[in-house]
């Protein structure tokens, strides 16, 4: 056992340890109670969401979907509309047959037409909530029937004077325009505009020209107001084309010497300015017409027509006022650069091209060729696309002047000089396009295509204007040599655009061969030539399908190109048989369309199936409007009405099944 001293030593050590632990505990407590300095929080990065991987749609799937939409459009829209048109034609034939046979008195004819048309309109309005497209179709058929009935009430039946018919036409057109405004329908907008235009044309025939001019401005303002409200930018441009007959008729007059030239010019300028005002108010940018082709073309046509109405120096003042207003409109819409630049370019184009047209032909060609080359060189220096586009205008006009019979009044030396000027300007502009637009390959191909007619004419001039067979041979050999030269340039420069141009020229060479060698030859040679062309189309189509990513589309294009050659062969062969040529051709078309449909089903190419539908439509049209003329009139009426009803009901049931599925 340990001794007493040892126990005391152990106890002392324990007590010392306890004191030591107590001091440590006190220090820790003091440290815990002491104020701490602010520390730094640990920064943690924000959570990053996982990247979203967007799957790019397959181009083949997109193409299939688009053609599925095309198939739906054909079945639900085009088919019933074609059927409606055929049904209306059937009604017209029935009315004509009734009049011819004496079944219908004029009053009964008029009331029957009104009843049928109003029935279509009422049914269409009732069906709008269920089937909007189908309802609009019925309303459209009824409106077309009303136009026909109202016109026939005066022209054929003599129930009321022309003034009443004009008022009825304008009232119906106003209702259709209001209908288009409510339902945002461009179809009814077009029908209402066409009806109003027909009413104005009737006024031109039956009333004073000043009344027609006033009605024309009123209708134009109403139609353009709807176009601006609906933001239909191109409606005004289409309306300009449709109403162009009114100012020209007022200017020239319906009979010789009865026109009002200055009123026609004023109407013409009013039309153009109002239509372009509607365009400018309805659009911010125009990706479809990036280079302002439409305003330039419209302004040019307006200027040319105005100078034809009021020629010489008398027409320069109103034309100058028109150009000033057009340029002022472009400056006013400077907040819309796309619109402003187009209008300003149109005014500049007409001012530099149309106004100098009063000069003599030969000096004008020299001046415009030099002007074209100078403007193109300046455009290269300034890198200005606007000047580049404007530089081509004088060259186009000079070329048109040369081709418009001027070359027949020139001696050999003068024509040679003109051709040299024109070809030099073409080469300079081609180089400028390649430098400014940085599109060397396409510009070279375009320049080569533009030089072709000048080259052919130059060879004829150098050969002393050969005639007859010698001229034909010169044309053919020049064309063939030019094609060979373009092919060599495409091979040397590895230019795909030139290669495409070479293929086009090769096809044109074949056409020239047929033009100069086949006519007045025997039937077997012509049949053989068309068979070779048909085989060439098949080979080119097969080759293109192997090199392109859309074989189905190219296959459909090949079938479409081969169709006229096939039809020509069938027609030529049918002349050797006792069968009727028209019936034989219709039967062959049915077989051709059926073969296209079968190939499209077996190869799973939707594009070819859509083409087969179009060919069936074409065959049905030939059957209805050509072959049926050889049938009895009553049978023709029955076939037309039954075919129209079948197509309308087919489109209706197709639409219903598609929406249910």
Overall, the morphology is: extended
Q: Helix and strand succession?
A: HHHHHHHHHHHHHHHHHHHHHHHH
Number of strands: 0
- Low-confidence sequence ranges: 59-67
Largest sheet: none
> How much is the radius of gyration in Å?
39 Å
Helix content: over 70%
Calculate the mean pLDDT score and round it: 73
Description:
- By secondary structure, this protein is mainly alpha-helical.
- The chain has a domain at 550-630.
- 80% of the residues lie in helices and 0% in strands.
- The protein contains 24 helices and no strands.
- The protein has helices at 4-33, 59-101, 106-126, 132-155, 162-183, 186-206, 209-230, 233-242, 245-252, 261-282, 293-309, 316-332, 337-353, 361-382, 385-403, 412-436, 440-462, 469-493, 496-518, 523-547, 551-574, 581-603, 606-625, 633-660.
- The radius of gyration is 39 Å and the shape is extended.
- It starts with a helix and ends with a helix.
Question: Can you give keywords for this protein?
Answer:
661 residues, mainly alpha
Summarize the structure.
The protein is mainly alpha-helical and 661 residues long. The chain contains 24 helices and no strands. The chain has a domain at 550-630.
Write the layout of secondary structure elements.
Elements: H1 4-33, H2 59-101, H3 106-126, H4 132-155, H5 162-183, H6 186-206, H7 209-230, H8 233-242, H9 245-252, H10 261-282, H11 293-309, H12 316-332, H13 337-353, H14 361-382, H15 385-403, H16 412-436, H17 440-462, H18 469-493, H19 496-518, H20 523-547, H21 551-574, H22 581-603, H23 606-625, H24 633-660
Helix pairs in contact: 2-4, 2-23, 2-24, 3-4, 4-5, 4-6, 5-6, 6-7, 6-9, 7-8, 7-10, 8-10, 9-10, 10-11, 10-12, 11-13, 12-13, 13-15, 14-15, 14-16, 15-16, 16-17, 17-18, 17-19, 18-19, 20-21, 21-22, 21-23, 22-23
